[in-house]
């Protein structure tokens, strides 16, 4: 079969790879029907995630059809249509028993496209399949479901819940990529008074407005700090969500929070950022980081099925699986392509 293989920083190829096989009784093999590319994949290609070995098939967001199950899988059968979660969970370790699946000690956590071959391929092995997949009803489209594999729960758990967004808050989201846009959608669930989105690309700011942002700030053309302070009476935001993963954006976020405010870091950081505790300690700032656990995925799927999320604007480009190399080029150059989320289908 074919898969998108990481060859080292800056190197990728759509090439022949071995067909996946059941290695553990709790494994399932899926035929990949729809898959997408994540900003984290770009961080891997940029050399920011050194734990990814050369030769690894990338990808951790897919919808597929079960073709084979191990003897220990009880909840799935061949022909089932499933969402493959970005997080795998053994279900029995200390962290899994607390619902903190991202920190699984039993061989799970974020492993797909990281420590084991991922889902940017024609078929994929899903470890701990009973706990790491979700059956999908026919009325949920592949392209809506695939957004619940990672970006929606990540934005919700690591951004909105960690940031403790509350009714009446002013929320500033720095970064209007897919994760930042998903933060706009899920922050709306808590009735903030104002959602402000900051980005360098006008096309992404327009998408943020469509999805519910009240105000957008074009970084580089506007003074972000001055604009936020002006709209908040000089105080700053109640919640700032970092959704980029660079030292510059992180340090900007620490200036935008008001005294007593919360900063929720979602971005994947490959380089050190300066933490100005000499400024932050006296302002009672709470800073959180995190890897998604996906404990919210069942509830988010229920809300998607009920029509509470309109995610149609998130996918801007569609490709066949054999166009993976071009899809990466498009996704990696959003300023030129206008890409938000790209979808590749069988």
Would you write up a description of this structure?
Strands 3, 4, 5, 6, 7, 14 and 15 form a 7-stranded mixed sheet that branches. Strands 10-9-8-11-12-13 form a 6-stranded parallel sheet, with helices on both faces. The chain starts with a strand and ends with a strand. It has helices spanning 39-45, 94-97, 129-132, 142-145, 151-161, 178-187, 202-211, 224-231, 247-256, 277-280, 297-305, 324-331, 334-337; strands spanning 2-8, 11-16, 28-36, 62-69, 81-84, 123-126, 133-135, 170-174, 194-199, 215-218, 237-242, 257-265, 286-288, 315-320, 341-345. Helix 10 (277-280) links the parallel strand 12 and strand 13 (286-288). With 346 residues, the chain is of the alpha/beta class. The mean pLDDT is 96. The chain has 2 domains: 2-150 and 293-345, Alpha-Beta Complex (Quinone Oxidoreductase, Chain A, domain 1); 153-288, Rossmann fold. The chain is built from 13 helices and 15 strands.
Describe the structure in brief.
The protein has 13 helices and 15 strands. The protein has 346 residues and is α/β, with parallel strands linked by helices. The two termini are 13 Å apart.
- H/E topology pattern: EEEHEEHEHEHHEHEHEHEHEHEHEHHE
Provide the residue-averaged pLDDT.
Answer: 96
Classified by CATH, the class of the largest domain is Alpha Beta
What's the CATH H-level superfamily name of the largest domain? Medium-chain alcohol dehydrogenases, catalytic domain
Number of helical segments with 4 or more residues: 13
Radius of gyration: 20 Å
Oligomer: single chain
State the major sheet.
Answer: 7 strands, mixed
Give the overall silhouette.
globular
Structural class: alpha/beta
CATH topology of the largest domain: Quinone Oxidoreductase, Chain A, domain 1
Helix content: 25-40%
Pfam family, one: ADH_zinc_N
Keywords: Metal-binding, Oxidoreductase, Zinc
Cofactor: Zn(2+)
Domain Enoyl reductase (ER): 7-344
